[in-house]
């Protein structure tokens, strides 16, 4: 039965070089390595392309090589049609945001009034806090009335009885009673920062003991509310050097996108033999894209070099940004189409010109034939020949030429295209006027 | 009806809605797979998503208030709890929350109450709740969906939700048809209908009425109706890779293979990102070898004709064609490695002989000859235990009722060669025999098939290794021609005004798992019937190994009735 199967096996094990039928079934690659060691460059060139670059490439085979790849790697038209023919819209989705926000704001409103009350008190407490301990106590009691503790026998938080060792204390913000173990202390510096975010922040951390002496004694509830407020504040001011660099990089990318599109358009126009843009224009555009790429590269490197502890998310983030930028530059900015040479452009333009010429010739012949049939008719005298200098059209054309020059200098090629179109229109109009004035 | 496109569009929508800025995406285990099936990392980096985090990763981390967080999770209770925790102490600046399926109001309320810092901007349901394997193939990655013959409730829930999501993501209304002989199919069909009813408002508001076009059909089938297909060795590229090397979420591990280059320990095979693969997915093994040979020939010719690059101009040209080369070298080497590995396995384990016999048992009836050849192969050292087991099972499926069935003797032979757990044959046989089958398992009795076979025989079979076509193909063709019998495949839900009309959009779901061979059949049908669009799904995508797992799970704690006379295992 093996004999019957030869055909099927054969296909799988053909060696690309000796074309030997390897139905002995040594695998393709190992056969390659063992029997064709002198042909290693084929395999290797597949594997590390840069190293073998010099041996493989010459410019004139770009095209057939590309064709081969396309044949092997890309889907042909039919397959493409099968895969892409169906139009599809984004599927159903439903938003619960409104409900979410309704629930949230109802809940937060309750907190908000309470937090505001606490903040006002905190402001009063911190603003003119006397340094003297007794004065301070008095000041604190003036701002927040302390609860009368005579009837409170147990700490409301931990339910332990008060005695000589477990003394009664008061929360400085709401005035309620609690024991020492249940109280939390808020650093005065932090308290000041919360009240006045513009004040300079001190970064030094106080050790727990001094904190207990100098800090504000709070109950857990008040502390949480104040802490929450602080976090919201912090996240608002989270913009760092990194973020600015990133935003700059993104804005460069934003600029690069239309520039690349413009370049493609200009390139195409050159290949089509149009005269809207000239080669130096396109080269300048290419230069500009190069500059943008450089800028993006630089910024992304800056971001990657930003100090971060290795292994942390921050470090991973920075690397990912750099990677994305490098990929973007490689795929979108450096793979631009090659420009045609001056000679090629001339050639295309000449062909186009000849085509146009032929068309005009044909037109003229037709006109002449028509004229011949109407030869009997009297020809109109042409005496109202206008003075060229005064023609407002000509003047306008000159102005536009000036604009074009300026726009070119500043690389605003969108404008160049529009102006060129205008100029063409004017020329046509002018020609038409001349003709009509002649007749 | 392109499922990959559907998922991609949802994810693009998420990244766009959050506006510009550095983004992190927070996912659970399943949504991680859902995203990784359709996007490569470099693609998603271009959408400003730089970090990928798991929501169940509770390790301590630094504050990242300058980042926007896109949350994409399934609406499970664990995820709600984890997300609540996250929102209480937000690490990121703002949150955009997307659930991959319907979420209850009470869960939204829970989350809203945790968002004390007002960091959440959006809460949405999007319906990317399945793994898009290919344009017309999806799965839920569940092996062992049945437990002791009835649905594992979690898996039933997951499948019905997933199918609901699929319909919503493709913007389709549907009627449900199911295999009446299978209890599992009926359960799932009912559950899906209930879900569709409950979410009627969502469907009515968002999915346009089809008008003149016939209503799309969801057809729910049972794997055990065709236990033969997952047992066969495959020779089309994708199916073969899965059978011999196992594709897991588009990834193939080559770590166990000797002398594989380091870069290819794990290769990604995705038809979205790899055009060579997309093109050769369904080519048979021989054709692939041919294509590679051509590529290498061409390459060699170039190498020979131009020995050196000397001028700056040459170098410049090289750099400009560089992306092309890089792409070419990357893809082709990857596939050369995979194909090399495949062919070495084919040679080592006598797979050509095994496959030939498998195909013959599947397609022809000749007891004496088959028995003799199975015995011969069981005695061959190089045949894997796994293949021996499959052969005996195929024999059992076809001949267990045969007058001179030698099944006990073959089981002894399996035992003798040390094959682990030969009992698996009986489990599968039991499961298959328990089904009241409308047709013969191997479709021999159907006169139409016999004529087809005859014609095929006259033309000469093109390839003896791919004679077998899955049952699914016939079922689908019947459905398309409007000949699928209503008493065997009843309709549930939706109006049946479209009855008898030829359907255009069909979603087939296989309870118990689909196979890549069936994906190929669906692909062929899509091409053969213009205007008809079929999408195939399964609880998982099986190869023979995972199929045995599936059987084992389904037979857990079940007494054998049909095969109880066989005692020697």
The CATH architecture name of the largest domain in chain A reads 2-Layer Sandwich
CATH topology of the largest domain in chain B: Rossmann fold
Q: What is the percent of helical residues of chain A?
A: 55-70%
Instruction: Name the CATH superfamily assignment of the largest domain in chain A.
Output: Zinc/RING finger domain, C3HC4 (zinc finger)
Poorly predicted sequence stretches spanning 5 or more consecutive residues of chain B: 444-448, 453-461
CATH class of the largest domain in chain A: Alpha Beta
Provide the spatial order of strands within the biggest beta sheet of chain B: 6-7-18-16-11-10-15
Structural category of chain B is alpha/beta
Describe this structure in words.
The complex is a heterodimer of chains A (439) and B (569). Chain A is mostly helical and 439 residues long. Chain A has four domains: 3-78, no CATH class; 103-236, 2-Layer Sandwich (Herpes Virus-1); 241-333, Methane Monooxygenase Hydroxylase, Chain G, domain 1; 389-439. Chain A has 17 helices and five strands. Chain A has helices at 6-13, 28-35, 40-47, 53-56, 62-73, 77-84, 97-127, 133-143, 188-195, 208-214, 220-236, 241-271, 279-305, 313-333, 342-373, 392-409, 413-438, and strands at 93-95, 169-170, 177-178, 184-186, 216-218. In chain A, helix 12 packs antiparallel against helix 13 (279-305). The model of chain B is unreliable at 444-448 and 453-461 (pLDDT under 50). In chain B, helix 1 (3-17) packs across helix 2, helix 13 runs parallel beside helix 15 and helix 14 packs antiparallel against helix 15. Helices cover 48% and strands 15% of the residues of chain B. Chain B folds into four domains: 3-126, 3-Layer(aba) Sandwich (Rossmann fold), CATH 3.40.50; 133-226 and 470-538, Sec1/Munc18 (SM) protein, domain 2 (Rossmann fold), CATH 3.40.50; 239-348, Sec1/Munc18 (SM) protein, domain 3a (Syntaxin Binding Protein 1, Chain A, domain 2, Alpha-Beta Complex); 351-433. Chain B has helices at 3-17, 29-38, 41-45, 77-88, 105-114, 153-169, 183-198, 200-206, 237-245, 275-280, 285-305, 312-348, 351-363, 367-378, 385-399, 407-416, 423-433, 447-459, 471-480, 516-528, 544-554, and strands at 23-27, 49-54, 64-73, 92-99, 120-126, 131-134, 137-139, 146-147, 150-151, 175-178, 217-222, 247-248, 251-253, 266-268, 491-492, 505-511, 514-515, 533-538, 541-542. Chain B has 21 helices and 19 strands. Chains A and B meet through helix 1, helix 2, helix 3, helix 4 and helix 5 of A and helix 1, strand 2, strand 3, helix 5 and strand 5 of B.
């Amino acid at each position: 039965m093996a004999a019957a199967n030869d055909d099927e096996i054969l296909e799988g094990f053909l060696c690309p070089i000796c074309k030997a039928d390897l139905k002995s079934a040594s695998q393709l690659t190992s056969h390659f390595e063992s029997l064709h060691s002198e042909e290693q460059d084929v395999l290797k060139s597949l594997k590390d392309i840069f190293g073998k670059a010099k041996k493989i490439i010459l410019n004139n085979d770009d095209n057939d090589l590309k064709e081969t790849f396309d044949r092997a790697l890309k889907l042909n038209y039919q397959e493409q049609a099968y895969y892409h023919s169906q139009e599809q819209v984004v599927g159903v989705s439903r938003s619960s945001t409104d409900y979410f926000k309704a629930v949230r704001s109802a809940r937060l409103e309750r907190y908000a009034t309470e937090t505001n009350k606490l903040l006002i008190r905190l402001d009063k407490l911190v603003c003119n806090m006397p340094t003297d301990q007794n004065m301070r106590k008095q000041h604190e009691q003036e701002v927040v009335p302390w609860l009368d503790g005579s009837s409170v026998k147990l700490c409301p938080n931990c339910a332990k009885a008060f005695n000589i060792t477990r003394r009664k204390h008061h929360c400085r913000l709401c005035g309620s009673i609690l024991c020492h173990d249940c109280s939390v202390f808020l650093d005065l510096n932090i308290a000041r920062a919360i009240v006045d975010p513009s004040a300079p922040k001190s970064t030094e951390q106080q050790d727990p003991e001094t904190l207990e002496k100098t800090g504000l004694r709070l109950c857990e509830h008040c502390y949480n509310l104040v802490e929450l407020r602080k976090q919201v504040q912090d996240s608002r001011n989270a913009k760092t050097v990194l973020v600015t660099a990133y935003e700059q990089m993104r804005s460069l990318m934003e600029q690069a996108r239309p520039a690349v599109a413009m370049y493609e358009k200009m390139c195409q126009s050159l290949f089509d033999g149009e005269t809207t843009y000239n080669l130096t224009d396109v080269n300048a555009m290419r230069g500009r894209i190069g500059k943008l790429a450089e800028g993006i590269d630089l910024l992304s490197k800056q971001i990657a070099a930003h100090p971060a502890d290795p292994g942390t998310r921050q470090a991973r983030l920075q690397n990912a940004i750099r990677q994305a930028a490098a990929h973007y530059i490689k795929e979108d900015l450096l793979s631009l189409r090659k420009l045609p040479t001056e000679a090629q452009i001339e050639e295309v333009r000449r062909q186009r010109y000849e085509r146009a010429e032929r068309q005009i010739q044909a037109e003229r012949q037709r006109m002449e034939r028509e004229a011949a049939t109407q030869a009997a008719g009297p020809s109109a005298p042409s005496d109202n020949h206008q003075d060229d200098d005064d023609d407002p059209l000509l003047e306008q054309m000159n102005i536009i030429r000036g604009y074009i020059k300026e726009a070119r200098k500043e690389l605003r090629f969108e404008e160049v295209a529009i102006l060129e179109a205008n100029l063409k229109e004017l020329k046509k109009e002018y020609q038409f006027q001349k003709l009509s004035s002649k007749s | 009806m392109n499922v990959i496109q559907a998922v991609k569009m949802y994810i693009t929508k998420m990244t766009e809605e959050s506006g510009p800025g550095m983004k992190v995406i927070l996912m659970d285990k399943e949504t991680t797979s859902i995203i990784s099936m359709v996007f490569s990392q470099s693609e998603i980096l271009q959408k400003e998503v730089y970090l990928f985090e798991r929501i169940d990763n509770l390790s301590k981390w630094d504050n990242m208030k300058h980042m926007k967080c896109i949350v994409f999770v399934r609406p499970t209770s664990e995820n709600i709890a984890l997300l609540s925790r996250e929102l209480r102490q937000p690490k990121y600046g703002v949150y955009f929350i997307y659930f991959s399926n319907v979420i209850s109001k009470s869960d939204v309320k829970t989350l809203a109450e945790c968002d004390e810092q007002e960091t959440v901007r959006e809460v949405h349901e999007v319906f990317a709740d399945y793994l898009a394997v290919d344009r017309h193939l999806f799965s839920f990655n569940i092996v062992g969906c049945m437990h002791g013959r009835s649905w594992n409730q979690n898996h039933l829930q997951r499948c019905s939700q997933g199918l609901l999501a699929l319909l919503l993501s493709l913007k389709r209304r549907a009627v449900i048809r199911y295999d009446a002989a299978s209890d599992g199919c009926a359960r799932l069909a009912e559950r899906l209908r209930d879900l569709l009813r409950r979410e009627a408002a969502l469907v009515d508001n968002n999915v346009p009425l089809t008008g003149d076009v016939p209503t799309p059909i969801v057809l729910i089938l049972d794997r055990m109706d065709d236990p033969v297909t997952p047992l066969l060795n495959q020779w089309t590229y994708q199916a073969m890779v899965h059978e011999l090397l196992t594709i897991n979420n588009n990834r193939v591990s080559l770590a166990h293979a000797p002398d594989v280059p380091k870069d290819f320990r794990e290769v990604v095979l995705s038809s979205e990102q790899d055009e060579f693969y997309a093109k050769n997915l369904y080519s048979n093994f021989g054709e692939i070898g041919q294509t590679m040979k051509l590529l290498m020939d061409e390459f060699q010719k170039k190498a020979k004709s131009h020995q050196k690059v000397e001028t700056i101009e040459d170098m410049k040209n090289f750099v400009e064609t560089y992306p092309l080369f890089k792409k070419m070298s990357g893809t082709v080497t990857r596939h050369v490695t995979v194909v090399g590995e495949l062919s070495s396995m084919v040679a080592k384990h006598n797979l050509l002989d095994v496959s030939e016999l498998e195909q013959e048992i599947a397609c022809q009836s000749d007891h004496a000859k088959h028995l003799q050849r199975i015995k011969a192969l069981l005695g061959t050292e190089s045949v894997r235990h796994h293949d021996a087991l499959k052969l005996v099972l195929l024999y059992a499926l076809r001949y267990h009722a045969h007058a001179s069935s030698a099944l006990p003797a073959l089981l002894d032979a399996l035992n003798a060669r040390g094959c682990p757990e030969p009992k698996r044959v009986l489990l599968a046989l039991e499961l298959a025999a328990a089904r009241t089958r409308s047709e013969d398992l191997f479709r021999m009795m159907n006169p139409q098939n016999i004529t087809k076979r005859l014609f095929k025989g006259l033309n000469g079979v093109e390839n003896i290794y791919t004679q077998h076509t899955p049952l699914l193909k016939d079922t689908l063709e019947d459905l398309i021609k409007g000949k699928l019998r209503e008493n065997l495949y009843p309709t549930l839900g939706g109006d049946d005004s479209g009855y008898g009309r030829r359907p255009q959009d069909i979603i087939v779901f296989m309870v118990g798992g689909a196979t890549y061979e069936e994906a190929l059949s669906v692909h062929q049908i899509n091409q053969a019937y213009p205007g008809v669009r079929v999408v195939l799904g399964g609880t998982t995508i099986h190869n023979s190994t995972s199929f045995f797992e599936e059987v084992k799970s389904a037979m857990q704690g079940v007494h054998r009735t049909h095969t109880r006379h066989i005692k020697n295992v």
